[in-house]
Structures are given as structure tokens and as C-alpha cells.
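Bumping my old thread because nobody answered last time. Still need a sequence for this structure:
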């Protein structure tokens, strides 16, 4: 594939491949950077932790989930941008916390391994671009 040089005739464009690469990097970089800046000891899916994550936009709440749990969360930023999540406060393992946090958000999660989870829109759920729905009502849960 040739790149188009300034002042030369047309050639095959690298724009679609470049755009796809940027989307992939943007979607994964956010969670990866958050993970690398955390100071938590390595965590696993089964570890219970005291969490205090406020309701809000999925991008910010997933970043906070990464910071508080030490787990790696992979998601495409554009796919979760217009979704909101519930508040999670209490002591939970990762699956419990994600289940509560994503309830009613139109998002779902799947563990890839003990330390990595993917988050994506539920199949069949679409939101018009630029239209975010209000955060679900506040949910405070304390584990016993």
C-alpha cells in the first residue's frame, strides 16, 4: 500500500486502516493507562474489595473501577460513551460490582481471564449518537 505524498497524484489511501487502528488504541488505551497508574496489588476476579464508585458516565466509572480493583478492563470508548452506570458502594468481588454497576445501563461484561474483563453494549441495544440517558437512580448496596 502506498501513502499519498503531498503534491503527488492519487494512490491507495491508508485512512481506513489508520482509523481502525486509532479506534482500537483509543478504546483500549484508556483502561490500560488507568491500570498502569494504579497502586493496588495484583487483584483477581474473586477478590472482595471495598468499592466506592459514583454513578456517572460509563467511561469515567469504568476507569474508577480499574483504579479501585486493579483489574484490566477493555472497552471501545465510542461504544460505551453514551451509557451511564449506577453507583456501587460496599464490599464486592468484581463480578458482583460490575453486575450492580452495569444494571440498566445497556452494557454487559465478560471475563477473559482472572484479571481481565471486557465491557460492551448488550446485543440489540443502540443509542442515537450524542443522546445519553440520565443515570439510573442511585443504588447503594452494602455487602454483609
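Sorry it took so long. Here it is:
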Amino acid at each position: 500500500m502506498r501513502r499519498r505524498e503531498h503534491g503527488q497524484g492519487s494512490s491507495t489511501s491508508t485512512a481506513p486502516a489508520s482509523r481502525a487502528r486509532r479506534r482500537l488504541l483509543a478504546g483500549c488505551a484508556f483502561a490500560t493507562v488507568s491500570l498502569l497508574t494504579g497502586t493496588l496489588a495484583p487483584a483477581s476476579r474473586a477478590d472482595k474489595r471495598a468499592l466506592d464508585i459514583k454513578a456517572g458516565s460509563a467511561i469515567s466509572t469504568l476507569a474508577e473501577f480499574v483504579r479501585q480493583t486493579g483489574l484490566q478492563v477493555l472497552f471501545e470508548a465510542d461504544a460505551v460513551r453514551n451509557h451511564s452506570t449506577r453507583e456501587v458502594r460496599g464490599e464486592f468481588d468484581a463480578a458482583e460490582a460490575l453486575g450492580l454497576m452495569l444494571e440498566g445501563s445497556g452494557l454487559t461484561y465478560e471475563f477473559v481471564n482472572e484479571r481481565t474483563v471486557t465491557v460492551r453494549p448488550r446485543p440489540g441495544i443502540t443509542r442515537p449518537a450524542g443522546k445519553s440517558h440520565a443515570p439510573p437512580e442511585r443504588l447503594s448496596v452494602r455487602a454483609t
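The mean pLDDT is 74. Let me know if any region looks off to you.
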